[in-house]
# Entry
Amino acid sequence: MLTSVDADLIRALADPLRLRIVTLLAKETLCTTHLVEETGAKQTNLSNHLKVLREAGVVDTEPCGRYTYYKLRPDVLARLADRFAELAGSARNAADTKRACP
# Structure
């Protein structure tokens, strides 16, 4: 069953730019400068999206000198994937179950 925490996570991943950021971070840990280069987004816009991902628990930060690196938290995504797998299993089991109309 999806929880409100899962719903917050889904909302965080629903934005196309944030999903692009997550896709990039799935391949390697990147700093803001790299993400600006890869996405073409303005630095302030990108920082706002990274804040949303950080608050949702999707990414962690790692300071390195004057740069901040971002890395994905695969455990968070795996937990969400498990929830969706449970929903898919329930949907398969309920495919032939139909409630009668009054």
Remarks:
- The longest helix spans residues 74-94.
